[in-house]
Design goal:
By secondary structure, this protein is mainly alpha-helical.
Length: 267
């Protein structure tokens, strides 16, 4: 026996549409109900009271709108097509109270989060809202269609936010990967620059050592040159002094002769 799924949205019993694999439209009438399904639904209820054609037309229109708003479930089992449309039975106050109780129970059983993003809570509230749309549509089609617009708008907004969230997460991951890659490149560049800095420092130290060696060598050479120059100056001074000493006797003789020559004229 095929049982209805565990869902807050109220469905009718499944109906066997076709025994072959060919799928047929769930809105095609009449539906071929299998004897097995009739036997499983329990005792046959008494035939309904005859209704006016207008009531039947309104009910048929309501069912079509319900099938359009909340499409029936379809699945294949044992090469047979089963269809389970939503219930078109009018709701009562007790149905709403029972829906609230079932919602609280499912939230507790499935351990839905009370705050924040929770897919379980969203799914259950979506089922509850669909059930409310079904209940309202049976009593007032226009109000149900308006609620359908509200539901579709909410779903579009949530889908847009979900797409934005996924794209932002992907963008964040891409930027994080780029940052990691840039960090790795920066670390490699820093390592290369540090190695180049060490090479330049070593070259600078070598040049400083060469410069200091050249300065010491030039200082020693300058000191030797100055000493040599001083010795040459002293040698020249001594030579000049010796020459002066050798020339003085001849000068004295010249002075005596000059005095002798000029002495008579003085007297």
């Amino acid at each position: 026996m095929i049982t209805p799924s565990d869902c807050l949205l109220k469905y009718d019993y499944p109906v066997l549409v076709s025994k072959n694999a060919e799928r047929k439209s769930p809105w095609s009438r009449p539906l071929k109900v299998s004897p097995q399904q009739m036997a499983e639904t329990g005792p046959v209820p008494p035939p309904p009271k005859p209704k006016s054609p207008s009531s039947d037309a309104i009910k048929q229109q309501t069912e079509e709108i319900l099938n359009a708003i909340l499409p029936p479930k379809e699945w294949m089992e044992d090469n047979q097509l089963w269809v389970q449309p939503v219930s078109s039975a009018p709701c009562t106050r007790m149905d709403v109270i029972h829906l609230q109780e079932q919602l609280d129970k499912r939230l507790q059983e499935r351990q839905a989060r009370e705050t924040g993003i929770c897919s379980v809570r969203r799914e259950l509230y979506s089922q509850c809202f669909d059930e409310l749309i079904r209940q309202v549509t049976i009593n007032c089609v226009e109000r149900g269609l308006l609620l359908l617009q509200v539901r579709d708008e909410i779903r579009m907004t949530i889908s847009a936010y979900q797409t934005l969230y996924e794209s932002s997460v992907a963008f964040g991951m891409r930027k994080a990967l780029q940052g990691e890659q840039g960090k790795s490149d920066a670390e490699n560049k820093i390592s290369d620059l540090e190695s180049e800095k060490r090479d330049l420092e070593r070259l600078l130290n070598e040049q400083k050592a060469k410069c200091e060696a050249i300065e010491r060598r030039e200082a020693e050479r300058r000191e030797i040159e100055e000493k040599k120059h001083a010795e040459e100056v002293q040698f020249l001074k001594r030579t000049n002094q010796q020459l002066k000493v050798k020339q003085r006797p001849s000068e004295d003789i010249y002075d005596i002769i000059y005095q002798n020559l000029t002495f008579p004229f003085i007297f």
